[in-house]
Queue: 2 jobs
Job 1
Amino acid sequence: MSVHQLVYYSRNTITKASVSPWKALKDIILKSQANNRRDDITGYLIFDKVCFLQVLEGDRDKVRTAYRRIEGDVRHCDLVILGARDVAHRSFADWTMAGALRTPEQDSIFIEHGIGSTIIPARLKADRVVSLAVSLARFHAFSREGGIAADDRSAAG
Ligand code: FAD
């Protein structure tokens, strides 16, 4: 059975000095993990001061419903869907949602995937974002720097 995979870009509007980027990402990831576990959605969220890049995968209707909910969230704006297609398998099968806050340690990974220090939305491609997310996920399997632990979907039963 195929899986629907949606990749989007958005502009980060979390500007309050009182909220650290780390805490903001953690709040989003924790809520996402709870909802996505319920909806059997998996994926990855990349985050910096300027933007979010997210991969959502699962049943087409459930992914679309989650996206509509996410689209209305005031913590970001100007969402652009980079790709929405059916794929043979999930790229983040074990995780209801994991995330990475971009730090200088990861710059080389972004550059390997053709994304420089400034993310230019018009140049982003869905495939590149997915492969970047897979590489960041592998990086965080070895280093806790900048990453938020995945919620192990297989362990949730
Ligand atoms: P509640 O948690 O009860 O929230 C009710 C309302 O309050 C919603 O409108 C919500 O947007 C808003 N809200 C909650 N917390 C805050 C806050 N700290 N600041 C401002 N408004 C707030 N949700 C998922 O289910 N799956 C995902 O994969 C996912 N990814 C996300 C990625 C990004 C970049 C962002 C910004 C949000 C993401 N969310 C995700 C959260 C999503 O936008 C909704 O907030 C969430 O799904 C609502 O959950 P709920 O229906 O249980 O409502």
Note: The chain has a mean pLDDT of 86.
Job 2
Amino acid sequence: MTWVIGNWKSNGSIAQQQTFAEVLRGYKIPSETHVVLCPPITLLYPFHQSLINNDIKLGAQNISATESGAYTGELSAEMLKDSGADFVIIGHSERREYYQEETVLLAAKFRQATTAGLRPIFCIGESLLARKNGTADGYIKQQIDDIVAATDISAWENALVAYEPIWAIGTGETATSKQISDMHQHIRNTFSKHSATIARTLPILYGGSVNPNNASGIFSLDNVDGGLIGGASLHIDDFCQLIASTDTA
Ligand code: PGA
């Protein structure tokens, strides 16, 4: 199976939602492809209503670390489920960097998600400095070991991992095929130290400047189970081409 997951980040309007819904309602998803769209929260329920009975699933981009209650501004796992989400992105590098989200908080979010039956899309990725000075493997292993220690490997049964080198996000610069395959192998090996069963089935997605031109090449690499796509997922034509490219991957 190949995953195409769109991450709209803090973008999108009602008008854009309507255009997407209109095209996607009639769009034939290839049978070996999973499509998930993660719009901003304001568009989650409109998408849920307009894509009902469609193969496209929905995700949120963030989740509260606590249950529903007196936490002004927070969106709990139950609320996300209620609005139509089946997935949630956790640990995106933008949240780690701009909102200081670290392992303890991410683990609490992960637990909230899995307890409510939401599937986490857990993001990991190294900085340009780590890539340049040869410490990327060690950094990624540490990110995995830390979150697994804080959550328990058994909670990963329905999770997905997105490897997103920070230097490739929104920059137009993708990692090379070798960098991607090597790192995905390394990620799978690292998970296998925690559980061979989880490591075997865990979808590992690549993210970072995936677009309709490079998608099928990336999706066909060893150990790559699809992509987490930002910029290109905002354009309906590109998004449809990304989905179609899984057929050739
Ligand atoms: P990008 O973003 O495709 O715009 O590089 C990917 C992501 O941050 O998930």
Note: The beta strands are 2-7, 33-38, 57-60, 87-90, 119-124, 160-163, 204-207, 226-229.
